[in-house]
Amino acid sequence: MLQFRKMKYYSTNENAPLAGLCDAVIRGLAPDRGLYMPERIEPLGTDFFEHIQDMPFQEIAYIVAQAFFGEDIEATALRQIVCDTLSFDVPCVEVADNIYSLELFHGPTLAFKDVGARFMARLLQHFIRQERKEEIKVLVATSGDTGSAVANGFLGVDGIHVYVLYPAGKVSKIQESQFTTLGKNITAIEVNGTFDDCQALVKAAFMDEELNRRLNLTSANSINVARFLPQAFYYFNAYAQMKRMRKADNLVICVPSGNFGNITAGLFAQQMGLPIKSFIAANNANDVFYQYLQTGDYKPKPSKQTIANAMDVGNPSNFARILDLYSNSWETIKKHITGATYTDNQIREAIKKCYGQTGYILDPHGACAYRALTEKLKPHEVGIFLETAHPAKFKEVVDDILKTNIEIPERLATFIKGKKQSLTMNVDFQALKFLLLNV
Hints:
Its EC number is 4.2.3.1. The protein has 20 helices and 13 strands.
């Protein structure tokens, strides 16, 4: 049995007290506006990696979860949280020679964020039962799939109310239906602005003294350690699958990247010993990180609307974690991550080409990652791209490109039939504050 010391979490801005897991999760953002980071990354032993191919996904994830949370949560409770979270498979599917899709869309909302959102919901419920009685208000900004994953992950959870802020007209109708038709403890707020505006409103709420004095606020965006860290689980599971196929040498993983929580979880996995050769961050036209890799200068800018809308982020929050992980060294970051960026037309070309050559249907986000692998993978390497959402969630876009009629899974069809329930507001923090205090 692996033994771990109780984990503390520090702020990337280095001007806040260390926090325990419960406080870090419930705060979401550190008091100095930094993001919480675990004070150490526990390496997993060689025995784990030698036998990982013989373990089921839930067992792999439990061992990884122990390294992060093992001294803060009793073993039986942690195992139950992991098992409840991972009630679905995450298969690696061969798409082309030496290129595999890690299909992350088999969860309840058909998107990769089901893993982090479901884990966080169960972890918060654990803390409420064990340590806190007051209602917690969860704020989340979404450019697409985060809202649906968080809303469904927390739906009906006692002691928690979720507020989903989303940019009006900038998420797909199917995505919107997944968090605006639920009711109960889920409130959807349609903001007349961009995702960056929504994210700024959420961050402002955490910095407001009165709100934090009167309410228990937390975020379920990838700024929260309980949302992004569990996403490391499926990187280990992907490696286990590739070992079973004898394809685990020289692995390159390509991640469609918006707010960079997903790839950051992969980088943590690598630091824990997972033998990944390198990562590729695939961007759409929002290429702030790609430009950073080229120049060493990080220049946030307003987000651009694209057909890969979940990646429409002009100032990725988790960039701060990547900087911290590699001690602010541009040279070190470049050794671990390369970049790619694609226009809408290039994304359309990738979807069309992949379908024509392989019969595999990509969603617009996975298409960025698939194209990057086809262009950058070397002959001796094996590539895995993260297919982060079911293509039916972007049915109008994909059908228009391929001239198909993608079947909508029953889970999605049920959401579409629901009645929209949402509030509307302008980009106005005082309006949000009033709402949080009175709704």
